[in-house]
Amino acid sequence: MAMHDTGKRPWTFWFFAAFFVLFVIFLYGPMFVVYVLSFQGESGGLTFPMNGVSTKWFGELVNPDSRSGDIASSFNRSIGLGAMVACITVFLSVAAGLGFRRRFFGSGVLFYIAIASLIMPGLFIGLGINVFFSELGWEPDWTTSGLGAQLTWTLPFGLLIMFAVLGRFNRSYEEAARDLGATPWQRMKEVTLPILLPGIIGVALFGFTLSYDEFARTVLVSGTENTLPITIWAMTTNVTSPALYALGTVTTLVSFFVVGAALGSIGLISRRRRVSRGDST
Amino acid sequence: MKIPPTLVSWLQVGPTALLLMFFFFIPMLVVIAVSFFDYQDGSIVETFILDNYRDVFTSAVTLTEYFNSLKFAAIVWALTLLIGFNVAYFLVFHVHGVLLQIGLFLVCTVPFWTSNIIRMISWLPVLGKNGLINSALIKLGIINTPLEFLLYSDFAVIVGYVHLFTLFMVVPIFNSMARIDRSLLEAARDAGAGRFRIVYEVVLPLSKTGIALGSIFVITQVMGDFFVVKVMSGSQSTSVVSALYNQVNALQYPPAAASAVCLLAVVTLMVAAILRVVDVRKQLAS
User: Fold this and answer.
1) Do A129 and B27 touch (CB under 8 A)?
2) Number of domains in chain B
3) Which of A58, A119, B184, B239 has the fewest CB atoms within 10 Å, measured from its CB?
4) B194 min Cα distance to partner chain A (Å)
């Protein structure tokens, strides 16, 4: 069978490999174009050729008098909102994931509501919350309606990740802890949560990045102050300078940093586990 | 002292349930209610009418929007399935070594964690009139004048969708394929099946769950989108939701709500049809 003969690969391997490489170029190519163009020279335009090299467009981003509006404060809002969403998503979806290990009254209905909330077109959630808030006489704001709108997206996601993580979780560790006399709280703190930690970091990663880049759910409910994606959306219609690309480069760097930190810490934990297991044998 | 286990579960699940009720379930009920209300000067008048629905069903514009959205959904579904299946197949059956496999899988998934809007914008300098593709083709002497259809067209919209959503096919199909017992392929080979027959009669049926899940994600995303259409078509094409977005901006909430309810009915039917063909739950549990 193809996978076993390491010496000579079948022609289909090269076909699929070429297909995969093309796919990766398709995926990343345009993004690299944006990174390069964000260093466009001071008199350069939105497309190639490069008219020299400068960091002028990054400077535009922190200049509050520029046409692009107050980017720094929407950036801060998005980071803050992402952190709040990540914290709430971690606490609630870990608890809910543990709760779902038992069948309880209403578990099926709740599961379907979560799935519906996940695949619901984002703009509808925004529309619903917007109208609901105005019926209640409440003002939409990114810290209330905006936060809630994003949680309808990150909570089901976190829940699904917890299902996947808990599906592989061996409950005999918990039983062993109970047999050794651990209280339920000790069992949770010393056994269950440490084993689940890599999955929990994954939930936090999803919570933050999905919130940080969220647009469709938030656009109708962020109130008077915009989050970063909404600012970018506004820029696409009225900013025609490479500052837009510079902002794209900066926000992508933030995303990459968060992804790298999360994956790095997951990798570190699993390596430490392998090492300590190696020591004990 | 002893708390009944069901109560423990409810305490653990409760906060999530409450949040989803308050920010998802009730707002959706409100949308349904508002779709039957009248409106005047940008505010909702609470009298029961059916005019909003009559407008949706009798306007020729709505029909074009639905046709546009369904056309995009069909084309994008076919393309993402083709690409997603091949990419997942390569990763699962042709890449040796778990570490390399995880690495390449991550390469496919990392863009998911970056901004969709930025990923859309990044096509502008590639496909534009003076963009990379046009200037390269002119330099090579293949064309004399820039190709106009590359940007601000249906073509561009489809490129945008495929770029954003192929990942939603790759991940579930990859999961399904990774669970296929390799000895089945060996058995098929020993029984004399060729490469394509193995893919068609063994791998494809066993990837059904992943294909169904991916299809649900891709179709709901395309049907619910409004910003890809807006950016990539330069506001020349409209989808159902981009029209709805314009209504909301004009503070016409009741007709927007009616349009949302109709679209939801259509999307629910599509998802139900997929679930009818493939029992996702049964296979997820195993």
Assistant:
1) yes
2) 1
3) B184
4) 11
The answer to whether residues A235 and A46 touch, using CB atoms and an 8 Å cutoff, is no
Answer yes or no: is A97 within a domain. Answer: yes
A128 contacts B30? CB cut-off 8 A: yes
Contact criterion met (CB below 8 Å) for B214 and B162 = no
Cα–Cα distance for residue pair A131/A129, rounded to 1 Å: 6
Residue B16 to residue B18: CA distance in whole angstroms: 5
Task: Judge: B122–A135 Cβ closer than 8 Å, yes or no.
Answer: no
Tokens coding B9: 């579960």
Question: How far is it, in rounded angstroms, from Cα B56 to Cα B256?
Answer: 10
Asked whether the beta carbons of B150 and B131 are under 8 A apart, the reply is yes
Task: Count CB pairs under 8 A between chains A and B.
Answer: 250
Distance from CA of A98 to the nearest CA of B (A): 7
Q: Would residue B268 count as lying in a domain? A: yes
Identify all chain B residues contacting A105, using CB atoms and an 8 Å cutoff: 6
Closest alpha carbon within chain A to B186:
A1
Per the listing, tokens 């909330």 go with A117
Residue B43 lies in a domain: no
pLDDT tens across the length of chain B (286 residues): 577 878 888 888 889 999 999 999 999 999 999 889 888 777 777 778 888 888 888 888 888 888 889 999 999 999 999 999 999 999 988 888 788 888 888 888 888 888 888 888 889 888 888 888 888 888 888 888 888 888 888 899 999 999 999 999 998 999 888 888 888 888 888 888 888 888 888 888 888 888 998 999 899 989 988 888 888 888 777 888 888 888 888 888 888 889 889 999 999 999 889 888 887 666 555 4
Is B80 inside any structural domain?
A: yes
Residue identified by tokens 């810490």 is A265
Residue-number span of the structural domain to which B159 is assigned:
59-285
Distance from CA of B60 to the nearest CA of A (A): 23
- Report the predicted TM-score, pTM, of the whole model to 2 decimal places: 0.87
Spatial neighbors of B88 by CB under 8 A, at least 6 apart, are B169, B170, B173, B174, B177, B207, B210
Cβ contact, residue pair B220, A29, below 8 Å: no
Q: Which of B13, B26, B28 sits opposite A100 (nearest CB)?
A: B13
In a domain, A56, yes or no: no
Domain count along chain A: 1
CATH of the domain at B83: 1.10.3720.10
Tell me the nearest-neighbour CA distance from B104 into chain A, angstroms. 10
How far from A258 is each of A30, A241, A249, B110, B165, CA to CA, in Å?
Answer: 21, 27, 14, 11, 22
In a domain, B194, yes or no: yes
Nearest chain B residue to A90, by CA: B16
Return the CATH number at A174. Answer: 1.10.3720.10
